[in-house]
Design brief:
disordered N terminus, globular
């Protein structure tokens, strides 16, 4: 067994047997500076590949020796930064896919017409409100944002504005979630 195979064996075994529950668990029990890194990695991954809820980061106990309010601010900022980086990665993939006619044709022919669906929802906001529309679309709690991110990547081409919109949308989503959940999040 090669060193790479050995290194990947445990994570792949966990993935095959438990799905992504282990990753959500890691976030929900994340503490200290390592906890911030776990939140950043999780947020990066959910931006472009994982169909998991971003709100789970609010459950992290973090315990940096600061007040819960400061811990929440750090969680929100680190998560938004991680998601912005992940969405820039997705944006790059989308830019490459945009150059590939077969990818777009395949999406249009798929069982779920991803292109049409995304144009009707996310892109409507994007066209009407620009990058602020993307930020608004990403601010909706408990709505999967990976699809919105990919839908927008095929239509736009400004990396910096895209990253700023996804950062703002991620902060917005977590702030709206905190407001909706109120004391449950603050007391956690």
């Amino acid at each position: 067994m090669s060193p790479l195979s050995a290194a990947l064996d445990v994570p792949l075994t966990l993935l095959a047997t438990e799905g992504f529950g282990w990753l959500e668990s890691a976030v929900e029990t994340a503490t200290g500076p390592v906890g911030l890194a776990i939140i950043a990695v999780y947020s990066f991954l959910i931006a472009f590949v994982l169909p998991l809820p971003s709100e789970v980061v609010l459950a992290a106990p973090l315990n940096l020796g600061l007040s819960r309010a400061v811990d929440l601010v750090l969680i929100v900022l680190v998560s938004a930064f991680g998601k912005a980086l992940g969405s820039v990665f997705a944006f790059h993939i989308g830019q490459e896919a945009k150059q590939s006619g077969p990818v777009v044709r395949w999406l249009r022919r798929s069982r779920f017409d991803v292109v049409a669906w995304s144009e009707r929802r996310t892109v409507r906001f994007a066209r009407e409100y620009g990058y602020a529309g993307l930020a608004l679309a990403l601010s909706v709690p408990f709505f999967p944002d990976t699809l919105s991110i990919y839908a927008f990547t095929v239509l736009e081409d400004d990396y910096l504005k895209f990253a700023a919109a996804t950062f703002a949308g991620s902060v917005g989503r977590l702030v709206v979630t905190i407001v909706l959940l109120g004391g449950f999040v603050v007391a956690a």
